[in-house]
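Deliverable D2.4 — example input (structure tokens):
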């Protein structure tokens, strides 16, 4: 008997019937989520502060609670990490997902509750499988095992009772014991902190396993795949795992890697499903292989609100609930969750492509950034690095722009910085080294990607000719006023134009 068909019929198909309610009952589902969240948190310190017991409608909730960023919740997080409880959410908070930092912090530590694990993150994973099996009824997904590539964790403030780490590591640590029978590698290997030994251990432990599915970040998974192919001497991954059929990917955009995956996985039967599982919550799953948009998962422990991108940073921004969003308009996402994040702006921007059901694409961050490989480099990081490099080398900068260089045939990548100097550094090599080192100091995700040059090579600096950025702005009709050179870009669109101009006299 095909075990996949049996499990699909008994377990996953009934869930798809519930997901079908997203099409016509989104408002009711979201209203129910908000009522449940407010009711459960009414007796927490936060709930008492904002008198959750008297909240009856979304309008009450909206008028009473301010929009939050990490800076506002940081004091609560510090107290939670020190062991206090019942602050933002009633159940015990033992886990903290470590994410890239803010202007003032190298890392953020986001609370993870047992409810957010079960009703959001794990439910998202199960629903991703349900959606995939609905699209591919002849799948043999459960005839083999799933390879999950995650991060690591460590004790929180030296307490073994509480853990801090990548969300993926927290999920692996707390997964139901039955799931361990259908996934690889072992928990011991999966949670190793050193990436290169982990890659070797994963390869050694899975080469002779029947792997049918992969889950992870595209950039890191590609490093693992190329290591396995090099180790085995095979030309494509299906020669190692002939029953491989799907890769659930997320964390960074898949587009830059798509062609490279075609080169290492040549099977026409391979499927790719994008998921949106952030440290703050599981938000979406691609439900149509021919449509890059993801289905917004609206019956988890997450209530959604949205701020039009042009209103972000305003004192009184427009804020709308799900039923009020417009299609093809950029919004900053605001969430309230069963981990105790209340009206929390996560920094991601999305655009809705459909509302029956609600489907969206990720359009970026609320500020300029580079997150091509999961490094989440922000302008503030760049400014700190450049300031330090200039001070150490006597350099002076007129303007700059930076963008990613995507992986080459060796699965390597880097950041490319185009800088116009008013005063050249006394040593360009020293300038680059100090900039790179400072970025590692102020951004833990960049530091992780740069470790041992494994996923991200040392940055490259190209000296811009005099007047380059002036000429580029002029070519765009954007001289004067408030027009600015994009300091950080997640694509190469701008920097390629600048590089072409850089070689013109």
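Example output (designed residues):
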């Amino acid at each position: 008997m095909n075990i996949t068909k049996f499990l699909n019929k008994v377990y996953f198909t009934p869930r798809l019937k519930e997901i079908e309610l997203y099409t016509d009952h989104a408002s009711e589902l979201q209203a129910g989520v908000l009522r449940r969240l407010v009711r459960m948190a009414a007796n927490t310190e936060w709930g008492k502060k904002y008198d959750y017991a008297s909240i009856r409608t979304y309008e009450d909730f909206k008028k009473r609670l301010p929009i939050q960023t990490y800076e506002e919740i940081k004091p609560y997080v510090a107290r939670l990490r020190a062991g206090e409880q019942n602050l933002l959410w009633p159940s015990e908070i033992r886990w903290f997902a470590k994410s890239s930092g803010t202007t003032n912090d190298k890392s953020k530590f986001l609370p993870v509750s047992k409810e957010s694990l079960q009703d959001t993150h794990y439910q998202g994973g199960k629903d991703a499988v349900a959606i995939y099996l609905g699209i591919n009824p002849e799948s043999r997904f459960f005839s083999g095992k799933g390879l999950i590539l995650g991060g690591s964790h460590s004790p929180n403030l030296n307490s073994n009772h509480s853990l801090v780490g990548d969300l993926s590591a927290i999920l692996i640590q707390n997964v139901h014991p039955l799931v361990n029978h259908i996934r690889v590698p072992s928990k011991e290997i999966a949670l190793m902190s050193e990436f290169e030994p982990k890659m070797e251990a994963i390869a050694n432990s899975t080469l002779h396993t029947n792997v049918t599915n992969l889950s992870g970040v595209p950039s890191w998974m590609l490093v693992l795949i190329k290591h396995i192919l090099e180790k085995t001497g095979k030309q494509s991954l299906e020669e190692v795992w002939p029953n491989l059929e799907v890769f659930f990917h997320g964390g960074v955009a898949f587009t830059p890697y798509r062609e490279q995956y075609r080169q290492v996985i040549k099977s026409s039967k391979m499927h790719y499903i994008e998921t949106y599982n952030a440290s703050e919550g599981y938000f979406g799953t691609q439900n149509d292989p021919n449509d890059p948009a993801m289905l917004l998962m609206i019956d988890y422990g997450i209530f959604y609100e949205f701020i039009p991108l042009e209103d972000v940073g305003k004192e009184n921004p427009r804020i709308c609930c799900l039923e009020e969003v417009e299609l093809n308009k950029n919004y900053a996402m605001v969430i309230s969750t069963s981990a105790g994040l209340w009206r929390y702006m996560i920094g991601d921007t999305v655009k809705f492509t459909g509302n029956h059901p609600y489907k969206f694409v990720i359009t970026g961050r609320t500020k300029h950034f580079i997150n091509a490989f999961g490094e989440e480099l922000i302008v503030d990081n760049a400014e700190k690095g450049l300031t330090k490099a200039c001070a150490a080398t006597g350099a002076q900068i007129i303007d700059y722009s930076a963008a990613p260089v995507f992986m080459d045939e060796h699965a390597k990548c880097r950041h490319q910085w185009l800088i116009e100097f008013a005063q050249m550094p006394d040593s360009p090599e020293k300038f680059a080294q100090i900039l790179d080192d400072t970025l590692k100091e102020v951004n833990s995700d960049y530091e992780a990607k740069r470790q041992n040059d494994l996923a991200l090579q040392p940055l490259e600096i190209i000296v811009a000719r005099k007047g380059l950025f002036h000429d580029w702005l002029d070519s765009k009709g954007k001289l004067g006023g408030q027009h600015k050179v994009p300091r950080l870009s997640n694509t190469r669109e701008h920097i390629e134009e600048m590089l072409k101009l850089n070689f013109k006299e």
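The mean pLDDT is 91.
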